[in-house]
Amino acid sequence: MPTPQELNHRQVPRMRRILFLCTGNTCRSPLAEVLCRQMLCQALGCSPQELPARGFVVQSAGVAAFPGDPSTELAIEVAAEYGANLTDHRSRPVNSELLEQATDVITMTHAHAAVLKYRYPGIGPVPVPLCGDDEDLLDPIGGDLAVYRACAETIRKHLQRFLNEWISAESESHGKRNPGDTDSTGGA
User: Fold this and answer.
1) Is 22 among the residues known to form the active site?
2) How many angstroms separate the CA atoms of 131 and 110, rounded?
């Protein structure tokens, strides 16, 4: 008979489904998707294929996306600079199913969040702008490589805020302690 600790380690984690949204799903949200996936893998010490087993699914879509468009060449290039791959990405429009499945909906602008509230009232979690309450992540489309690099850096900076929360929740759901945590006796 397995011990409670063994059963705890066998439990399937509560799945966190993260959905990034922009306009056309060819620049910002796909960059956020692959950069988030990469940052999660680094933080958890796992491969992208292992993320679902660790409780994470990361996706992206667009509020005005045409299905099947590839990411822009510059988004692909910038993703590659970070070791991420966007070459197989194809755009897709957001829909009620994606929103219903999501535990976190992160928009690139406040306007994207407003569109979701208007088109899909009460469906899915409340959208949260990536850059917080006071800022939007402007669309790099039409910009040069420097604009795309700045976009990727902004995404990474703001993703760190979310990752800290998600990783902490993932650790708690697995009964793991974070480095530096102590037990009630003061030991590690």
Assistant:
1) yes
2) 9
- For 112, phi then psi, to 5°, come to -60, -45
How far is residue 138's CA from residue 185's CA, in Å, rounded to a whole number? 50
* Catalytic entry in 16, 17, 27, 28: 28
* pTM across the whole model: 0.84
Question: What does the alpha-carbon distance between residue 76 and residue 69 come to, in Å, rounded to a whole number?
Answer: 13
Delimit the domains of the chain by residue range.
13-171
139 tagged catalytic: yes
Fold of the 13-171 domain: Rossmann fold (3.40.50)
CA pair distance 159, 153, nearest whole angstrom:
10
Exactly one of 46, 139, 149, 156 is catalytic; name it.
139
Distance, C-alpha 184 to centroid of its chain:
34
List the chain pLDDT tens, one digit each, 188 residues. Answer: 444 444 344 444 479 999 999 999 999 999 999 999 999 999 999 999 999 999 999 999 999 999 999 999 999 999 999 999 999 999 999 999 999 999 999 999 999 999 999 999 999 999 999 999 989 999 999 999 999 999 999 999 999 999 988 888 766 655 543 433 333 333 33
Please compute Rg for the chain using Cα positions: 18
